[in-house]
Design goal:
The structure holds 2 protein chains of 2 kinds. Chain A is mostly helical. Chain A has one domain. Chain A is built from 6 helices and no strands. Chain A has helices at residues 3-10, 13-20, 22-79, 83-108, 116-135, 149-160. In chain A, helix 1 (3-10) crosses helix 6 (149-160), helix 3 (22-79) packs across helix 4 (83-108) and helix 3 packs across helix 5. The radius of gyration of chain A is 18 Å and the shape is flat. By secondary structure, chain B is mostly helical. Chain B has helices at residues 2-48, 53-83. Chain B is rod-shaped, with a radius of gyration of 20 Å. In chain B, 35% of the residues are buried. Classes of the chains: A mainly alpha, B mainly alpha. The A-B interface holds A 19-23, 26, 67-68, 71-72, 75, 79, 83, 86-87, 90-91, 94-95, 97-98, 101-102, 105, 109, 114, 116-117, 119-121, 123-124, 127-128, 131, 134-135, 138-142, 145-146 and B 24, 28, 31-32, 35-36, 38-40, 42-43, 46-47, 51-55, 57-62, 64-66, 68-69, 71-73, 75-80, 82-84.
Chain lengths: 161, 84
């Protein structure tokens, strides 16, 4: 790994912010991985449930992405205020996000192409799959609290190419 | 007789919807408690060692997301019971 490149990358203002607010970096990385793997999952669903299943699975993936983004945005916002706000955002956000998911699925059930089985399976598989996958790249050190330095430097190398 | 069967069918549908709603609500209780514990302990850790706040928040975020998966399983059961 190019250490000079990694050092230059971490010295930017953007990455200092990412280290202070690790949720943003983790979710951005999760979405990047999710977008890469989603077509494979949709192809798998297409083979089993057909086009209606693909539409429902794509909706499920979009719901999971939105759920992660909302969770990260709420926690990042509350983390800047106070620990009490963080507690409020975590528990209130949990209820709000579950309610939003329920409303979104009930609204989608009125559409003709709605297939509950692929939607449900996609929600669980994508949520747990992305989380487990992301835990491999998370760094729990005081210097790099969000994503690990090796992984971030690799990403920056690819961007520079 | 046919009317009676139709009424029984409606009652079964109604009970299924009630069961799905109750199941979803009950499935959300455990993760709610779990998220409270995760965030509470994370705040304690941040108060004791403010310099480790970033690390604690990373763990907290992943902990919340993993705990939330339990509620999502309840949610999927609700979807399957109501719409399948």
């Amino acid at each position: 790994m190019n250490e000079k490149l990694a050092e230059r990358f971490f010295s930017t203002r953007k990455n200092v912010d990412l280290n202070l607010e690790p949720e943003r970096g983790i979710v951005a990385d999760m979405l990047r991985r999710g977008i890469k793997i989603a077509p494979l999952w949709l192809l798998f669903v297409l083979l089993i449930w057909g086009t209606d299943g693909v539409a429902s699975a794509a909706y499920g993936i979009a719901l999971v992405f939105a759920n992660f983004v909302a969770a990260a945005a709420l926690l990042t916002w509350a983390g800047r205020i106070s620990p009490a706000a963080l507690m409020f955002a975590a528990l209130g956000g949990f209820i709000l996000r579950l309610a939003a998911l329920t409303v979104a699925v009930i609204a989608a059930s009125k559409i003709g192409v709605f297939e509950p089985a692929p939607l449900g399976i996609t929600i669980i598989v994508s949520h747990l799959g992305l989380l487990v996958w992301e835990t491999r790249y998370v760094s729990l050190s005081l210097a790099y609290p969000g994503l690990g330095p090796t992984h971030l430097a690799q990403k920056k190398c690819k961007e520079m190419k | 007789m046919i009317d009676l069967l139709a009424q029984a069918d409606t009652a079964v549908d109604g009970l299924k919807a009630v069961g799905a709603g109750l199941g979803y609500g009950l499935a959300a209780i455990g993760p709610g408690v779990g998220i409270g514990l995760v965030v509470g302990n994370a705040i304690t850790a941040m108060a004791r060692q403010p310099e480790s706040a970033g690390m604690v928040r990373t763990t907290m975020f992943l902990g919340i997301a993993f705990t939330e998966a339990l509620a999502l399983i309840g949610f999927v059961v609700f979807i399957l019971l109501n719409f399948a």
